[in-house]
Amino acid sequence: MIMSGTVPLYNPVPIYNDTDEGKPVSTSPVCLEYKVATDQSLTNVVDRGQVHTSSDVDYTVKVEVVGLLPFTTYYYQFSVCGSNNTSPIGRTKTTPLATDKVSKVSLAVFSCSNYPFGYFNAYGNPARKDSVDYMIHLGDYIYEYKSNDYGYGWSINRVPLPDRTIFTLYDYRKRLATYRTDADLAYSHQHFPWITVWDDHEVADNTYRDGSSELNNTEASFVSDGGVSVDQRKMNAVRAYFEWMPLRQVDMDDNLRIWRSFSIGSLVDYIALDTRQYDRSITDLYWNTDYVHEISNDAGRSMMGSRQEHWFYSTLKASKARGATWRVIGSQTVFSRLNESLAYGNVNPLDYDAWDGYMANKNRTLQTLYENNIGNNIIISGDSHANWVSDVVWLDTHQYDPATGAGSIGVEFAGTAVTSQSPAGQNITLATANLYSQALIEANRELQWSELYYRGYYELHISHEKVEAQYFGMPTVVSRNPYEISLANFTVLNGANRLERHNGTVAVGGVVENGAIKGGRTVQTNRTNSTDTGMYLITHYDQEDL
Predict the structure, then answer these.
(1) Do residues 194 and 185 make contact, with C-beta atoms less than 8 angstroms apart?
(2) How far is CA 395 from the centre of its chain?
(3) Which residues form the PhoD-like phosphatase metallophosphatase domain (predicted)?
């Protein structure tokens, strides 16, 4: 089955016509009515009212509805006041109260969706399957580049707008609006609640407190990048993000704060970190890799700043104290060590833009977990455009047995990109990708599975007894389609603090579809599920991505 099409670019007033850029926009407010009901036909209405929006917030609307029950599905609709002009009916679901005895919750986890690299099929698949409760996005929801800088969308009519590197408030608003024209992204937002944080590309590549890879607080950088300062660019990006994304302002006295936590019954605490924008020490900007390597162990370096660090460690302790069964920790970058000397050589073998470049911060996190006996930790991460599954270990401080997992304090599930290219290279072959993966699992004791070829997502199905992780790959993102391949499944048992082993391997059934797995087998079947029909077929695509 081939699916095609996009939704219209949201354009209530002509502010998104390139010929009108810079012209005055309407300041007149728009009146909207909303209603929320327990049924899809919107007959059993539990709340309704009027709200106004304007160009001040890019004609976006957010409503904090009152009187809703916990862990309950609701339907909603907007309409222009006094008219029959209505929005599609949306669906959402509230979270449980912290004290609720929830038996199971399921999450779909995404990161790194680059519009010109391909279609966002990964967003639509779990929505069509209706297989989860909440959508988790770990960042890189948009990218800041112009066409052909990073992504080649002309051939599939996916050119990011405005077609330039973005700096201004107008730019970020229009880029977000363009991404929302993807039909699968729109479908997912319409039918599921999202919990989001940003990574770097919501602002710029490899951001930190004082700049990014291509914009820093120097006069030369200011002049060459169009006369926009680091702080102004970040403010533009953050404002547009809070306008367009489904979240409230976290702290009215701290506009940059997005880090927060969610207590999902007594079952799980989801801790959403900001390891990019909030007070991050200088990172690898490509020209300073040797320097960042040299200072990577400095005690003062932090991925999140002292205020967020203190909150993070306190939240971990409070989660254990309240008796939550699991802690799911959302990190933008990969937490576990990844010796990537195969790709980068032995001079700088680690990814110093990830936690390996901030060893003191990483060690303080591990110290908090080990010394306070905080177990049942599941770290989820994105950013790397690849799939990784590891035991979480304080190497060189605690004994660790990679054969059994003894000595670990949790598990990390890191996911590939929705569309962004593999770190092993654009249009890499399956065979070459798997050779890289084999070398990586041999070079890293705690790394149990590596997979570098597929774009996709993964699901976490969490109960008090165990966490089950299911990884899915998209056969191709060059076209819009409902297909996905089950890549691998993993289990973490309550109290084990490690990946469950099955006859010497962590893969359920001892087999993965692709990549390299310690102690197990890779068997490529191309057995593909059509999430539109539920039927299975064998697919063969010559091109997985652009």
Answers:
(1) no
(2) 27
(3) 107-471
CB-count exposure of residue 463 (10 Å: 0-12, 13-18, 19+): middle
Beta strand pairing status for 73-80 and 45-53?
unpaired
**Which pLDDT band, with edges at 50, 70 and 90, does 12 fall under?**
very low
Where in 420-463 does DSSP place strands (E)?
447-451, 455-463
Closest CA to 131 of 543, 529, 542: 529
Please tell me the total number of residues recorded for the chain in this structure.
Answer: 546
The model's pTM? 0.95
Cα atoms found within 13 Å of the Cα of residue 490, Cβ hemisphere only:
30
Residue in this structure with the two tokens 């048992």, named with its chain if needed: 493
Q: DSSP readout, 28-58?
A: --EEEEEEEESSTTS-SEEEEEEEEE-GGGT
Per-residue pLDDT at 294: 97
For 83-94, write each residue's pLDDT tens digit.
999 999 999 999
H-helix segments, 98-207: 121-129, 169-179, 183-191
What is the dihedral angle through the alpha carbons of 174, 179, 185, 190, rounded to the nearest 10 degrees? 10
Domains of the chain with CATH codes: 1-93 (2.60.40.380), 95-538 (3.60.21.70)
Strands 260-264 and 466-474: unpaired
Q: Which of 133, 129, 131 is nearest to 268 (CA)?
A: 133
User: pLDDT digit string (tens) for 434-455?
Assistant: 999 999 999 999 999 999 999 9
CB 327 within 8 A of CB 264: no
CA distance 108 to 461: 9
Is the pLDDT at 432 greater than 70, yes or no? yes
